[in-house]
Amino acid sequence: MSINFAKIDTPALLLDLDKLEKNIDDIASFAKEAVVAVRPHIKTHKSIKIAQRQIEAGAVGLTVAKVGEAEIMVAGGIKDILIAYPLAAKPKLERVKKLMEQAKVIVAVDSVEQADLLEECFDPKNPLNVWIKVNSGLNRVGVDPNEQVVELAQHVKGLSGLRLDGIFTHAGHSYAASSTEEIETIANEEAAAVVTSAELCEAAGIPIPNRSVGSTPTFKIAGTVEGITEIRPGNAVFYDMVQVGLGVAKREQCALTVLSSVVSVKKNRIVIDAGSKTLALDQGAHGNASIAGHGFVKEHPEFVIARLSEEHGVIPVEGTVDVKLNDRLTIIPNHACVVANLFETYLVYRDGKVIDEWKVDARGRLQ
Amino acid sequence: MSINFAKIDTPALLLDLDKLEKNIDDIASFAKEAVVAVRPHIKTHKSIKIAQRQIEAGAVGLTVAKVGEAEIMVAGGIKDILIAYPLAAKPKLERVKKLMEQAKVIVAVDSVEQADLLEECFDPKNPLNVWIKVNSGLNRVGVDPNEQVVELAQHVKGLSGLRLDGIFTHAGHSYAASSTEEIETIANEEAAAVVTSAELCEAAGIPIPNRSVGSTPTFKIAGTVEGITEIRPGNAVFYDMVQVGLGVAKREQCALTVLSSVVSVKKNRIVIDAGSKTLALDQGAHGNASIAGHGFVKEHPEFVIARLSEEHGVIPVEGTVDVKLNDRLTIIPNHACVVANLFETYLVYRDGKVIDEWKVDARGRLQ
Predict the structure, then answer these.
(1) Which domain covers residue B259, as residue numbers?
(2) DSSP state of B65
């Protein structure tokens, strides 16, 4: 049944509950079959309600990037959180300490210098759980997966305020892949970076029970590699046009859309009320050639949202088109994670009806 | 005096009060000399406190894009607002009606069809003020500044629920100019589009007392053209790297910066805690060749923030650099308007001290 869009003020963030549930179940089924734990990254949805559904579906805990996100999720009842970010600033670490009273918290470590800064803040009576982040090719944070990881692991082992029991990576460079084969190669390298690092550490006498990989394009491949124990997909809860462009999802799987209205119809263009403050400017996280414009218009697949200003999207047209003022256009965004962060709430719908409104709880928690 | 950044958690949005006041005064001085009214666009700052300062400096009212922004500003005591957007949806018009109980509200009109939809919602006892928006070359919304504008004006004049007394335009295509001469040409065309349209209407017996131009790159040129009565700069309250790239402002005038921290130092790169959820991906609203990377790093002008993921910025480096974990980097954003919209508050500083925290009141008011 098609939802009665005419009554909804725009722009609005629509969440298809059936698709959301299917996406959560898909991840859970994959993980069950591959015998890996799931620790979804909540940067995509920033919603307690969605996080709780992920936990109900079997996730062992959550992944976040920010202490502020962790605080929101712990307040929402989540008990196990990986802050996948190399924290080192004292005010943030004091907040982590506080969170540890209510939940298990793990923090990323990616250098000896950072480990020493953590050590200054945590004491042996209540040590901080840390996982080493390795660089599997994204070349962002992360230690290289060679003897450097062993050196770091040995250093961390010598610090009484830290408790090391995991190694993880994020193969974000898979977003720039130009073929399914390239995604496969990256996924295998991602898993190898973690497994090799863990084995090097274990050969040096340091057990690494947790071996975690991430990234929506790669998790279904990397998650099947022998020795991997956990996956951390984020975007796969919604999917978006970047994932469709990569061949990772079909448009039908995309659970998140932006409802916009036509605000002006001119002889060679249509203007909608969704601009860069609504759809963001992402056209593929690291460059995705198959993205045309700024989102996919479901009612008119032939439309290209060619340019955005802050509150306008411009769709060039030729000849007469069957579109008039106040018509609704539903847009699958290029990058769901940044779009959700621009809205206050999700309008959650099922069977053609909006049945709930969920807060984007951790929206804009930048610190 | 330099502010003690070490105590501020990051990423944070810093507002230099001296620079802000100077930018507000500069606009006011220009307007006084050119004998034009000022109606700043608040999409840049979305702050009641800043809007109030603009009014105190002599602004006759404000410009907004969204009804939600107007509501916030009217609640903050502002009495005169142009909603520079061709509204046509009933729920939004009902909200406008409500606002009219507390403030003078003007709405943009850019087609006969839209005017008829407005007419359905407003009655002759309390007519809606409308200004016709003309297209001066941006090719977004707006009627063409020829006989079409007269046809529209005559149509509006025949509607008893509407009261027409202005024509305005926005020359946003000036953001894509490649030289000062091109900005000058665009600014003169912008003013001509409004003045010519107003004269055509007056020749047809429809007085147009308000003739308003906008756009930060052009307002100081278009505002001096004979027949123009009002300017509506937005970005000029802060300025940013896009304006610096256009030659419209100097870096020293930029009032808004993002304070970030170094979170990882590797042999060929530095990683900071400001990504696309902090700095946005803008590199010039409509393509600005002089922008390098994703913002200007004040402490290290040689740094280029080459890529952003959601919560990381990556700065490639060669050889040894004098940067360590937790060092603060202060970034002038490429596009201030979208960056402010990503934060909850401004940290307002003067004489090396944070003296206040101002809310981004209308943040994310998309409807």
Answers:
(1) 5-13+248-359
(2) S
**Is A280 in Cβ contact with B324 (below 8 Å)?**
no
Give the end of a domain, one of A237, A259, A280: A237
A52 vs chain B: nearest CA distance in angstroms?
Answer: 23
Q: Do B276 and A282 count as a contact with CB atoms less than 8 A apart?
A: yes
Structure tokens at B117: 């939809």
Q: What is the pTM of this model?
A: 0.97
Q: What is the pLDDT of residues B88-131, one digit of tens each?
A: 999 999 999 999 999 999 999 999 999 999 999 999 999 999 99
Instruction: Tell me, yes or no, whether B25 and B95 share the same domain.
Output: yes
pLDDT < 50 positions in chain A:
1
Same domain, A25 and A9: no
Select the residue of B86, B282, B310 nearest A263 (Cβ to Cβ). B86
Enclosing H/E stretch for B271? strand B269-272
CA distances (Å), A243 to each of A125, A230, B96, in order? 44, 21, 40
**Are residue B62 and residue B185 in the same domain, yes or no?**
yes
d(CA B58, CA B25): 9
Using DSSP, state whether A146 is helix, strand or coil: coil
| Same domain, yes or no: B97 and B112 | yes
Sequence-distant (6+) residues with CB within 8 A of B121 are B90, B93, B94, B97, B128, B161
DSSP string, B198-223: HHHHHHTT----EEEEE-TTTHHHHT
Answer for the pair A227, A198: CB distance below 8 angstroms, yes or no.
yes
Q: Are B146 and B198 in contact (CB under 8 A)?
A: no
Report pLDDT for A247: 93
Two structure tokens written together for A222: 């990397």
How distant, in Å, are the alpha carbons of A14, B366, B367 from that of B68? Answer: 19, 7, 6
pLDDT recorded at residue A124: 96
Pairwise CA distance, residues A131 & A120, whole Å: 17
Report ipTM (2 d.p.). 0.96
User: Closest chain B residue to A109 measured between Cα atoms?
Assistant: B264
pLDDT category, B4, cuts 50, 70, 90? confident
**Which residue's entry shows tokens 């249509």?**
A270
Longest dimension (CA), chain B: 73
In this predicted model, what pLDDT tens digit does every residue of B6-51 receive, in sequence order? Answer: 789 999 999 999 999 999 999 999 999 999 999 999 999 999 999 9
Q: Shortest CA distance to B39 belongs to which of B60, B53, B57, B65?
A: B60
Burial A73-103 (b: 16+ CB within 10 A, else e): bbebebebbbbbbbbbbeebbebbeebbeeb
Closest CA to A216 of A197, A195, A192, A240: A240
Of A11, A309, A311, the CB nearest to B285: A309
| A267 belongs to a structural domain | yes
Question: What CATH number is attached to the domain comprising B126?
Answer: 3.20.20.10
H or E segment and range at residue A219: helix A219-222
B140 vs A312: CB contact, 8 Å cut-off? Answer: yes
Same domain, A104 and A173: yes
Q: What is the pLDDT of residue B1?
A: 46
Residue A184 sits in the same domain as residue A265: no
How many structural domains comprise chain A? 2
Residue A180 sits at the chain B interface (C-beta within 8 Å): no
Per-residue pLDDT at B7: 82
Last residue in a domain, options A237, A265, A295: A237
- pLDDT digits 0-9 by tens, B168-215: 999 999 998 989 999 999 999 999 999 999 999 999 999 999 999 989
Same domain, B97 and B152: yes
